[in-house]
Design goal:
The protein is α+β, with helices and mostly antiparallel strands. Helix content is 21%, strand content 29%. The protein has a single domain, classed as Alpha-Beta Complex (tt1808, chain A), CATH 3.90.1570. The protein contains three helices and 14 strands. The chain has a six-stranded mixed sheet. Strands 1, 2, 4, 5 and 7 form a five-stranded mixed sheet that branches. Strands 12-13-14 form a three-stranded antiparallel sheet. Helix 2 links the parallel strand 8 and strand 9 (144-149).
């Protein structure tokens, strides 16, 4: 099958979208801090518990996005990626990487979490092997690029406007509307997985925070306690009125 070819104006050599062969050696670089996988997992967890993840989607962390530029294979692994629709795999197969157009839609959102040592998240290097910023903006042309600094809680959201990323301003709550998911993204400070610090969280259009599993359990526990307290108060009132609650 002839790979789909795209020739962006003026700057890039030919781009082809070819699925990587099964034996292609993917980069095996360790994450730069323990908070990065926790941040990615927390973002997915709240989406999943809210019932917002469909089987047709791809949501992954530290996962290779691929393109072939001038016959050179480029693989970049963002800390978090969301693809609205991908082609299903044959039963039993595992997705090792993702090539837009060849395997489904292009990603709608990529995120990078900055460690103590900046890892090229702002790099606009236009030459092989290309900077991350350049790869997402000019080669993959991903509509939304999010950069988060966990140490300071700084959140930057860039949208692709006429082929260039433009930084967006948050709303009055400090949140950003990401239409691709019909949700708001913002920073929350607190504790999860025994880690105290800044976390990325989702809010719906009504302003409701999408909860983590531990928060849902605590919410259910509080609801059960409140129900028991109301039942105890009602039983006491019935006794004062001379009625045995067990007889009702």
């Amino acid at each position: 099958m002839t790979p789909l070819q795209v020739q962006p104006p003026n700057t890039l050599p030919p781009i082809t979208w070819e699925k990587l062969p099964a034996d292609f050696p993917l980069p095996d670089e360790p994450v730069e801090s323990n908070i990065q996988p926790l941040l990615a997992a927390a973002l997915r967890e709240s989406l999943e518990l809210a019932g917002l993840i469909l089987e047709s989607m791809l949501i992954a962390s530290n996962f290779g996005l691929c393109a072939t530029v001038d016959d050179k294979t480029i693989v970049k692994a963002p800390d978090w990626v969301y693809v609205p629709s991908v082609h299903p795999l044959p039963q039993g197969q595992i997705r090792r990487s993702y090539t837009p157009h060849a395997e489904g839609e292009k990603p709608a959102i990529v995120m990078e979490f900055i460690s103590a040592t900046e890892g090229g998240e702002y790099s606009i290097n236009p030459h092989y092997p290309y900077g991350k910023w350049y790869f997402y903006e000019q080669i993959l042309r991903i509509p939304i690029y999010v950069i988060f600094h966990p140490q300071t809680g700084t959140l930057e959201v860039y949208c692709l406007v006429q082929g260039k990323y433009e930084q967006q301003s948050p709303d009055e709550k400090g949140q950003f509307c990401l239409e691709a998911l019909n949700l708001f993204l913002g920073v929350w400070r607190g504790k999860k997985a025994e880690v105290e610090g800044y976390w990325l969280r989702w809010w719906d259009k009504l302003g409701n925070l999408l909860l983590w599993g531990s928060e849902l359990i605590e919410q259910e526990r509080q609801t059960a306690n409140e129900f028991e307290q109301k039942a105890a108060r009602l039983a006491e009132k019935l006794r004062l009125m001379g009625t045995n609650p067990e007889d009702i």
